[in-house]
Amino acid sequence: KATSLWVSTSFVQFTAFLVCLVIWYFADGKSFMTLTQVPDKWTLLGGVIGAFITYTVIIGMNQLGPARAVMLIVAAQLIAAYLIELFGMFGVEKAGFDWLKLLGTALFLAGIIIFKKN
Prior knowledge:
With 118 residues, the chain is mostly helical.
């Protein structure tokens, strides 16, 4: 609230970058140039997705409050992960449709709706 949304998002992403650099240095320390050897360069765009996620988290926390925002964030991640697995996107092995996973997701969403009404 003390600054603009994009300044906050930039700060979050920048501090995450610095933490990752420190951990990389002590845990691995291999050259950054190994990134040039990644066969599918589009897979390196996770930071773009991360910036969008940070933006939506900040908006959600402000508009919905922490509890509701976190529940919706987890639900969205669960649904996105299942769709990625179901359609075999991003190099993930394609999985078959599972009614129990769909039922579990529906129950989770029903819980969010019930929580919101109280």
